[in-house]
Specification:
Helices cover 32% and strands 25% of the residues. It is built from 6 helices and 12 strands. A hairpin with a 4-residue loop joins strand 8 and strand 9 (167-172). The N and C termini lie far apart (75 Å). The structure holds one DNA strand.
Length: 203
DNA sequence: AGCACA
């Protein structure tokens, strides 16, 4: 088909390019909107685009009808030459994006997740703190060993091992610094079988 | 003659 494959947008050329952009747009709208809802009209004075217009309809059938009816129509002493645009306009492609419906399992999962989140609001959701609580350390872990581990991180202040407990507090300048260290060392194996566990200290 | 907009 010489007009191209049907499309929501009409490509109009051979327009009188001496007409001001706003006026052209307004006149085109007046005529073309009589065939159906026009979503957008684009005219440009750019060298490559002068004398042309893109007219986008909500419905393809209206676009097709307008094309047929307006083809060759004299407009400011020039016959309009109309075809379907090569590509759909963005207004159309954006609106066409298909959102797959959620199946029941997905919905149930989401509902459960929401309910669970409500049950324990601040429960095991960690509140960032400047001090980290370290667990699963070897019993013999002491301050200098902890310093060795944590002082490589910016903002490190001091380590406070809990005597003989395999646990320690490590202080940082602020929660941000503590977070970097915590994330970096999470699960770090001090000995081959001992991943340490890091959480924020509770105030 | 010439097909853009995000």
């Amino acid at each position: 088909m010489f007009d191209g494959t049907p499309c929501h947008t009409l490509y109009v050329k051979n327009l009188n390019d001496k007409i001001k952009k706003i006026e052209l747009t307004r006149q085109l709208y007046a005529m073309f909107s009589t065939y159906g809802m026009v979503l957008d009209i684009m005219v440009s004075k750019a060298p490559k685009l002068r004398g042309q217009a893109f007219i986008t309809y909500k419905d393809i059938s209206d676009a097709a009808n307008a094309l047929k009816r307006m083809q060759g129509f004299p407009f400011y002493e020039k016959a309009m030459m109309i075809s379907f645009a090569k590509r759909e306009s963005h207004v159309i492609t954006q609106a066409k994006k298909y959102v797959p419906p959620k199946d029941e399992r997905t919905l149930a999962k989401e509902t459960n997740a929401k309910l669970a989140a409500k049950k324990k609001p601040a429960g095991d959701e960690e509140e960032p703190a400047a001090t980290i609580y370290v667990e699963n350390l070897p019993d013999e872990a002491n301050e200098s060993m902890l310093n060795l581990l944590f002082s490589q991180f910016p903002g490190f202040k001091k380590s406070r091992p809990i005597p003989a407990g395999g646990k320690a507090f490590v202080e940082f300048a602020d929660p941000g610094a503590a977070t970097s260290a915590k994330d970096a060392l999470q699960g770090f194996k001090v000995t081959p079988d001992r991943p340490i566990k890091l959480t924020y200290a509770k105030n």
